[in-house]
Amino acid sequence: MLKMKFCANLSFMFSEAPSILERYSLAKDAGFKAVETGFPFGHSLEQVKQAKENSGVDQVLINLLTGDVTKGEVGVTAVPGKEDEFRANLNTTIDYAKAVNAKKIHIMAGKLDNVTVNNWVTYEDNLKYAANKLKEDNILGVIEPINQHSVPKYFLSDYRKAIEIIQRINSPNLKLMLDIFHLQQICGDISHNIKSFMPYVGHIQIAQVPNRNEPDTPGEINYEYVLKQLDNHGYNDWIGLEYKPANNSKDGLKWIKKFGYDL
């Protein structure tokens, strides 16, 4: 078997269970050793910790508390005047991360109608604060460019700008989340960009383009090739399966063995 570590994204997978708490055990039953999640809205820290511990899986990553998702809020990191809200959200997320022993937090930027220089200044200042704060608990912060088709008006949709910020902050506690699904839709050129971006990568996610289903479903990306490129360029950390199963989540995992991997 080829070497690669896959973790289930519980915000997308096992949606046959309405509660994210139930999905921990479904991931374990499907053979996963680890999971990642969005912020578990509506569930207390103790509930999430208990569900994770009962399942016996590890948790790799958790998303930042982002505000009211029903209103489309995906963070305030780039919003001037909301620095206190950002810091409170970060502190809450750190508490959850520590409870489930997650060593990575995805710091979401937010959506904006009109972007100004002040947004970039605020974004970078907040990321500096986050990197210093996360260092205290040995947690890695990752930032992810997200394509404008999936999340219109998302603030960060430029890999070069993301890397420039990471370079300026120059902290071991701030790296790039490289989601191949978004990479293809933002700029493509996957092979060269994997090589170029790899020194800055702290986490990777995958899904087919454009329908965001399993990697072996019809679409734009040859994932058998891409996964080997990730391996060839030295990535040996977890890969999050942030895709929407075309049908049943467990049945959809057949691609893993077909590609020569296991869980």
UniProtKB/TrEMBL annotation:
Specify the Xylose isomerase-like TIM barrel domain's residue ranges: 26-258
InterPro entries the UniProt entry points to: HyI-like, Sugar_Epim/Isomerase, Xyl_isomerase-like_sf, Xyl_isomerase-like_TIM-brl
Catalyzes what?
3-hydroxypyruvate = 2-hydroxy-3-oxopropanoate
- Alphabetized UniProt keyword annotations: Isomerase
Q: Name one Pfam family in it.
A: AP_endonuc_2
> What EC number(s) is this enzyme filed under?
5.3.1.22
Tell me if Metal-binding is a UniProt keyword of this record. no
Q: Which GO terms describe its molecular function?
A: hydroxypyruvate isomerase activity
Q: Which GO terms describe its biological process?
A: glyoxylate metabolic process
Q: Which domain of life is it from?
A: Eukaryota
Active site: residue positions: 144, 242
* Stated family: Belongs to the hyi family.
Q: Describe the task this protein carries out.
A: Catalyzes the reversible isomerization between hydroxypyruvate and 2-hydroxy-3-oxopropanoate (also termed tartronate semialdehyde).
PANTHER family listed in its UniProt record: HYDROXYPYRUVATE ISOMERASE-RELATED (PTHR43489:SF6), ISOMERASE (PTHR43489)
Q: What is the protein name stated in its UniProt record?
A: Putative hydroxypyruvate isomerase
The source organism is Diatraea saccharalis (sugarcane borer)
